[in-house]
Amino acid sequence: MHDTHAQLEVAVAKLRRGELVAFPTETVYGLGAAAFDEAAVAKVFETKSRPSTNPLIVHVASVDMARTACTEWPEHAQILAEAFWPGPLSIVVRRSERVPASVAAGGPTVCLRMPAHPLALALIEAFGEPIIGPSANRSGHVSPTTAEHVRTEFPDVFVLDGGPCRVGIESTVVDVTSNRPAILRPGAIGAARIETVLGVSLRNAPGEESIARSPGLLHRHYAPRTPTLLCEAWSEFDVPDARVVVLTQRGADVPKQFTAIHMPSDAEGYAALLYDALRRADAMGTELIIVERPSGPGDMSLWVAIGDRLERASAQDKHP
Ligand code: TXA
Ligand code: MG
After folding, report:
1. Which of 6, 12, 17, 136 is the most buried (most CB within 10 A)?
2. Torsional class of 96: left (φ above 0), alpha (ψ -120 to 50), beta (otherwise)
């Protein structure tokens, strides 16, 4: 690896030429391109095989830069940015004309986030303009949390290596285009913290029906290729001869033909290792991945977000 400064120069030159650059954030690695460059945006959709109906997050290095991508910056956006930026919160506001319609899947809004990672911020600042950054994985597959994950997925893409991602699951997406904000994707920052700083109850707060959700967010998503089951305990399944890998928080009580991947007991540790564990499990080429439904100490909202990702990773898969 060359020094960081030289790596950044290469990355910025690529962005200026309309090429893609993968970059680290505190959540997962992003597949970056110049947000205001329609042709570069098209390359991102193509590289990921992403449906054009699924809009992209625009990454900024400051609130001033965020304002260049939207027509209005509501009070709620300002309060959230002051409380949580840089950090794992993406804020949906009204899109300015500078943002190509394709970034927003043709809609009137844009999703903005200032990531809490020194390399990501240095990249955006050096480039001087917003950078789109969907997770650097093929559409529907597990998000990458190390540079190595990205290289495995896209061998031809230049990757800025910032080490393993600290948070490990994607940002919370919150829509502030109406007076009653709504969470469209659960993430590391929970509903309760957002309600506290805004002083309003969210449209889909716990207990209210959760209707709002991000466009293009498929039920099956964040998914390994190996059939994946979510259950309370591996022992619910009688799979005598199958080769199985189990993500478990418990001691080594799994049968011999099972491979156990031991997961941390706390929410923060679990989230940080989840995607790496799913990718390792997938690479073992077994017939089945069993994930024991996790619980434990730590931030309850993070457990909610982890549960959301596990539901999607295991969606539509039937027990063989
Ligand atoms: O943590 C993250 O958010 C990571 C890192 C790289 O920043 N990025 C990420 O991007 O997860 P992606 O493209 O995998 O997920 C973007 C999410 C999708 O659920 C999408 O529907 C939602 O954000 N989204 C993007 N633009 C939106 C918009 N204008 N309105 C509503 N939801 C939007
Ligand atoms: Mg993604």
Report:
1. 136
2. beta
Ligand 1, atom 32: nearest CA belongs to which residue? 214
Q: 62 C-alpha to center of ligand 2: Å?
A: 23
Q: How many whole angstroms from 109 Cα to the centroid of ligand 1?
A: 12
> CA neighbours within 13 Å on the CB side: how many for 272?
13
Identify the sign of the CA torsion 83, 166, 31, 34: positive
Note the pLDDT of residue 219. Answer: 81
CB of 43 closer than 6 angstroms to any ligand 1 atom:
no
| Element spanning 164, H or E | none
User: What is the residue with the minimal CA distance to atom 6 of ligand 1?
Assistant: 30
Distance between CA atoms of 135 and 144, rounded to whole angstroms?
Answer: 7
Backbone angles phi, psi at 228, to 5 degrees: -125, 130
Taking only the tens place, the pLDDT of each residue in 290-308 is 999 999 999 999 999 999 9
SS3 210: coil
Taking CA atoms, 160 is separated from 20, 170, 232, 273, in Å, by 11, 18, 38, 20
